[in-house]
Please model this.
Amino acid sequence: MIEAEFLVEALQMQENIWEPNWDRAVSGLCRGGGVFNDAEARQLKHSYQLLRRCESGLRRYENKAVSSLPTDEDEQRKLAIRLGYDSFENFRSDYVDARDSVHALYERKIKASG
Model:
C-alpha cells in the first residue's frame, strides 16, 4: 500500500495536481494528466483495494496497527478465511498479483522517469 500511495503522491507532484483522496487522485492522473491509461488506473485501484482489505483485516484481528502480511503461513490462511476466500491459493494469488501490479506501475512511472 505504501508503494501505491507514494506512486500516486509523486505523480501528483510531477503533474502539479493536489487531491488528498487517493481514489480521486488516481482518476485525476488518468483524466487530467494522462499519466495512467484507463486499464492502469483500474488495475491500480483494484490492487490498492485488495491491499487495503488485507490491512483492515489484520488490524481488526490484531486490534493494533499492522501493515505487513504475517510471515506464518497459518496466519495468512486465517486472514484469507476472514477476507472471505474459499482457498488460500486464491488469496495468495490475488495478493501477489496486487502487490506485483503496483510495483510494476511504480517501476514504469517513477523509476523509468528518474
Summary: The two ends are 21 Å apart (CA to CA). Helices lie at 2-15, 22-31, 38-62, 73-82, 88-111. The longest helix spans residues 38-62.
